[in-house]
Amino acid sequence: MGVTGYILTEAASQPAAGAAGWTSSAPASYTFSSAGTKTLYAWAKDAAGNVSASRSGTVIVTIVSGSTLIGHWKLDSGTNANDSSSSNLDGTLSGSPAWTTGLIDGALNFDGSNDYVYLPSYSLYNVDPGEKRTFSAWFKAGAQTDTRHILWNEGGCRGWYASLNNTGQVQWSFSTSPSSCSGPTWHRITTSGYNYADNQWHLFTGVIDRPNNQMELFMDGVSQGTAAIDNINPGSGGYLKFGTMWDNSVFFAGTIDDVRAYDGALSSSEVQALYDASAATSSLIGHWKLDDGLGAERIPNGNFGTNITGWQKTGVSTLAWQNAASGDGSTGYMRFNIASNVDYDRFATNNSPSVTAANTTYAVSFWYRTSGITGNLQAYSGNSISTLGTTVSWASDEIAPSSSWRYYSTSITTDVADFPLFGISKLGDIGSGTLDIDAISVKTTASAANIAVDSADSHNGTLTNGTPWTAGKIGGALNLDGTDDYVDIGTFNFGNVFSISAWVNIDSGASNIQTIMANAGSGAATNGFRIFVNQYGTSDQSLWIETGNGSTGDQAVSATGVVSYPGWHHIVAIVDRANGLANAYVDNIQVITNDSILTDFWNNQTTHIGQMTNNTYRMGGKIDDVRIYNKALSASEVQALYNAGD
Question: How far apart are CA 155 and CA 124, in angstroms?
Fold first, then answer.
């Protein structure tokens, strides 16, 4: 039965088949009402009213009043600098800029030798009299040997550019002239003080407002100053380049991501919103989405199928991927084809050379190779998933206990009218000797594995004592039993300033201390930190950030009742170890403000989610979307995280 409807929602709960908003055509569209980091859920239904499981993704939404996005080069494609705006002004890569991980998905790394991106001359880049434009780009770079250009637009000695000089200062320049290169006038704003060549992500935003005779430079959402410009001389009429200048004589060394152009002058609040919508990920050093048990996504960023490689085993038919990189793009199932008319020897219980009797059993099998953690194997055809242990069985040790080869087998009987694995009906007419199969699909899931994937770094957590997966606030979550469940993320270096964010839903009957995260055992003076909701001997439901140095302890404590339960709450703990201060938010409301903590507690040791490290004070309830940042999140960044899950 085919798909008859699609819907996009911000709500994680499954919509009814008869709810408003369904559309019969793909792609479906959705309009956001506010800016920030958002999670969007996609659903499908069939004619019988069956609604699929959801697929979700995180998007960054910027709502700009009075300004239109006329260029947006996300630098995520892996091939070209594609423009995702309606202008469709794609760029061409020159040299060999390398695709790499960016602040927002992918990015381009420029080697400082000959790498750049070129976009032909187009009027949208120009800023003629009476026009307003805003240009922005995220960049990350170390020291430059001289002034190097992040963005460059010029034609006839007129235009604009954003550059990073050899002292780490950012320059925003704009030139006009009455006639080509005849007497051009350059206007320039240069930052002072902070060194932006620090190998950290920074957002450049440059505004040119010719009707108001002003240009302005923003760095990381904050104005760095303005300069007067004219509203008389024409604009550039030139091309646009990333990573070099007009004659390709000098080249930027660093990474560039998410380049944007707006037809309009963004206000200071809009520039701040643009920064806030993305900045939270720039310092994300740990992110446990805890979605691994709900569906096929084992690798971040939608790379379904990349944890299964190598499809050949001696004596078994060759198998070929249909789409190994991304699954089928909608359900998350990894799908491959067996070449047409691949013959599998039939197996009959009576060893007869021909198939003659009903209920004769046929065996179908193949080998496959895995890398990384292996979960369950399920067969898939159309909208049907076979039941493990009934029509599908698999063994992990067919070759040797340490082998990464796996063996899959199943049985088919002729009295099955429509076998869900292969979609073959009336098997009694197959005949003797061979069984032809055209396609098989398999699904992997971590629901039976013990790994919580860290999508920001390499600190995958180990689930202990059968911690079960469940539906969460954003996709999946972990359901901790309060008895022996927890996640060990290993040794983690938090640094001197860090923020911890998590969604929690504590059980209604929970008692005692409910630990969210800790890198120390229990005891007020035990060296390290502990973040928990207090329920010790009382029902005060206060949030605690407790630190100890081995001989003494100090606690930052909220008012009572701030974390009621049951129910989902977004908790953010912000720790400034260097200055001995802690802040905290619950559901976007600040509940701890500059309370004192110790400055010498250990910050680089084994860390657990859901308990203290001496196996005490375990949390009972659900926990989702755990994050660690190596900076103090701002109020607007906390709000963006809260809005993403609210």
Answer: 13
| Number of neighbours of residue 387 by Cβ within 10 angstroms | 11
What's the farthest any 2 CA atoms get from each other in the chain? 97
The Cα 425–Cα 415 span in angstroms is 10
Q: Of 617, 609, 530, 516, whose CA–CA distance to 563 is shortest?
A: 516
What is the helix, strand, coil percentage profile of the chain, to 5? 5, 45, 50
- What's phi and psi for 277, nearest 5 deg? -65, -25
188 plus 101 within the same structural domain:
yes
| Same domain? 462 vs 537 | yes
Alpha carbon distance 230, 214 (integer Å)? 8
The answer to the question of residue 276 being in a domain is: no
For 455-540, list the strands marked E by DSSP. 461-464, 469-471, 476-481, 486-493, 497-506, 514-518, 528-533
* Pairing mode, strands 589-596 and 581-586: antiparallel
DSSP code string of 585-612: EETTEEEEEEEE--SSS--EEEEEESSB
Distance between CA atoms of residues 482 and 366, nearest Å: 42
E strands present in 156-231 = 158-164, 170-176, 185-190, 202-209, 214-219, 222-228
Distance CA 104, CA 39 (A): 14
Q: Is 304 helix (H, G, I), strand (E, B) or coil?
A: coil
Same domain, 172 and 29: no
Q: How far is the first Cα of the chain from the last one, in angstroms, to the nearest whole number?
A: 34
Rounded to an integer, what distance in angstroms lies between the CA atom of residue 13 and that of residue 31?
18
pLDDT tens, residue by residue, 313-352 = 222 222 222 222 222 323 333 333 333 333 322 222 233 2
In terms of C-beta density within 10 A (0-12 exposed, 13-18 middle, 19 or more buried), how is residue 156 classed? middle
Residue 193 sits in which domain range?
68-265
pLDDT at 207: 97
User: Which range is least confidently modeled, 12-16, 442-446, 578-582?
Assistant: 442-446
Residues 183 and 224 in one domain: yes
Measure the CA dihedral 136/137/143/148, to 10°.
-70
Token duo for residue 324: 């190994």
Amino acid at 321: W
Cα separation of 475 and 296, whole Å?
12
Distance CA 611, CA 519 (A): 9
**CB atoms < 10 A from the CB of 326, how many?**
14
**pLDDT tens readout for residues 184-211:** 788 999 998 788 998 888 999 999 999 9
SS3 638: helix
CA distance 543 to 535: 10
- In total, how many domains does the chain have? 4
Same domain, 147 and 245: yes
Measured N-to-C along each axis, helices 268-279 and 635-645 cross at an angle, to the nearest 10 degrees, of 60
145 φ/ψ angles, rounded to the nearest 5 degrees: -75, -25
**DSSP structure class, residue 277:** H
